[in-house]
Amino acid sequence: MNPSLEALSLASLPGKVPKTLPLFRPLQLRLALFKCHSNHSRFRINSFLPIGDTDSEIAFCALLERLKPLWHGHDSTPHLAARLDVVVEFAKDLGQIGLANFLYCDGELLFAHGHRRKQADGEFKPPGLYLLRRRCTTRGHSSEAAGISIAALDQEVVLVASVPLTAEAWEPIPQGEVVVISKGQVVAREAARAPTPIR
Fold this sequence. Notes:
- This protein is an alpha+beta fold and 199 residues long.
- The protein has helices at 55-71, 80-97, and strands at residues 5-9, 23-27, 30-37, 101-105, 110-114, 117-118, 124-125, 129-136, 142-145, 148-151, 155-161, 171-173, 177-182, 185-191.
- β4 and β5 form a beta hairpin.
- It is globular.
- Residues 1-20 and 194-199 have low confidence and may be disordered.
């Protein structure tokens, strides 16, 4: 899938049985992945029919419906800015309906949208997602076997989770912001320009 997709962790909504996630669907000649905290299903869908009846499946199909014009009938990969515009608009609409933390990967880019989640004090408020940039150093390690020598390389990764998973300095993703990750780097960030969500 995507070398920058290092960790996906969204805790299930309170009082709900964890649903089978992430969801996968074909998009052009790629495999799209989606993982979402959602509690709504008010989207009109024409081309992508949900396989299941979860809110996340319906939201995924709605996002793919919006992305379809960028991918279908074109020989080249849509530009990052065009994909980001669609995802940001979708995030804005999703946030007006209910909780809208989601991760979407199109095989090249990972889009993470932070919204709100139930916090330790019991209130639903930001942050909905956190990210951590990490550099994994090899310290000169290499592997040798049967006449083959493989040099280990340092690796940069970005981890995204609904709660910090370690004691490291996790960065909260502001409510309504979409972060785009590629090859272990944050390559774009944009606010979803959303009005106050309907409660």
